[in-house]
Amino acid sequence: MHTLLVLTVEGLVQGSIYAAVALALVLIWRATKVINFAQGAMAMFTTYVAWLAIQHGLSYWAAFGIALICGFALGAVVERVLVRPVETASPFNVVILTLGLYLFLEAIAPMIFGGSVRSFPPAFAITGLELGKVQVPLSGFDLFTFGCVAGALLLLTLLFKRTNLGLRMRASAFSPEVSRLLGIRVGRMLTTGWALAAGLGALAGVLIAPTSLLQPTYMDEAFIFGFTGAILGGLESPWGSVVGGLAIGVVLTFVGYLSPDLETFAGLIILTAILMLRPRGLFSRQRERRV
Q1: 39 contacts 193 by C-beta, under 8 angstroms
Q2: What Cα–Cα distance (Å) separates residue 89 from each residue in 13, 30, 99, 103, 104?
Q3: How far apart are CA 82 and CA 122, in angstroms?
Q4: Longest dimension (CA), the chain
Q5: Which pLDDT tens digits describe the chain residue by residue (291 residues)?
Q6: Distances from the Cα of 168 to the Cαs of 30, 76, 85, 193, in angstroms?
Q7: 208: closest CA among 268, 148, 137?
Q8: Distance from chain centroid for Cα 169
Q9: Rounded distance, CA 281 to CA 247, Å?
Q10: In CATH, what number does 2-277 get?
Q11: Residues 171 and 162: beta-carbon distance below 8 Å
């Protein structure tokens, strides 16, 4: 029973990271109708910037804020400089562009920050909490991670359901021509969507860095499993993506307990199954959305 509890908690903690990545993918999908395959690489790059800030004597919280700001800025620059010229072309052009950006960032990161494996300090202790004489398989940093993901989910839900900005972003993604006729600045909305998604991705990068060695490819696995969680929950559903990310984390933790070599294979099986059986995801509405 104790092993079951420990594995479940570990899975939920790991799944919360995947949920953060999934939320970033859902955000950019709902705002721009694009899947950014460079999301993980962009998060890695901004995490390196935060690490560099810490090396120069800044506090963790200052570096945390710098990572988020750099994420927003990087997302906006990518949309304005790279995506904007091809946004009216085939969607495959943007997919190929993001894959190229992914390769570029992972190639240039070791040139700028060095290729050595680095450690990233956590905001709080990563050892289990003690309640009296009982050791709880949850650390202060785990609780911080849960809080960040829950806060991001709440803000994302409020953005799209309770604000005019979220409505304009969704309208720009679904029907840019009609949105322009209604006076919506579609270009600004797309830039905002990329910036917010990159900022959320930067949050995921900083959260996973303390429990994973910092290197140019450290976000690849998190992106793959986060993408699987987003597909599982549905790219239209922020809540579904969080549930999907948590579910992927729990399942892969139990699979890894049996054999660590099977984790990636299990993730591929889940992704293939959901695409074949319910490509819209478990929580997406079946009817067509209309703006």
Answers
A1: no
A2: 40, 19, 16, 22, 22
A3: 34
A4: 65
A5: 667 777 888 888 888 889 989 988 988 888 778 888 999 999 999 999 999 999 998 999 999 999 999 999 999 999 899 888 887 777 778 888 999 999 999 999 999 988 788 888 887 776 666 665 656 667 788 888 889 888 988 988 888 888 888 888 878 877 778 888 778 888 888 888 889 999 999 999 998 888 888 899 899 888 999 999 999 888 888 888 889 989 999 999 888 888 877 888 888 888 888 888 887 777 765 444 443
A6: 11, 17, 21, 11
A7: 148
A8: 19
A9: 13
A10: 1.10.3470
A11: no
Q: For residues 243 and 251, give the distance between their C-alpha atoms in angstroms, rounded to a whole number.
A: 12
Write out the two tokens for 143: 């609780």
Three-state SS at 216: coil
H/E element, 138: strand 134-139
Q: Which ranges in the chain belong to alpha helices (H)?
A: 2-32, 39-55, 60-77, 91-113, 140-162, 164-174, 176-181, 186-208, 220-233, 238-258, 263-277
Separation CA 150–CA 67 (nearest Å): 19
Domain extents in the chain = 2-277
Residue-level length of the chain = 291
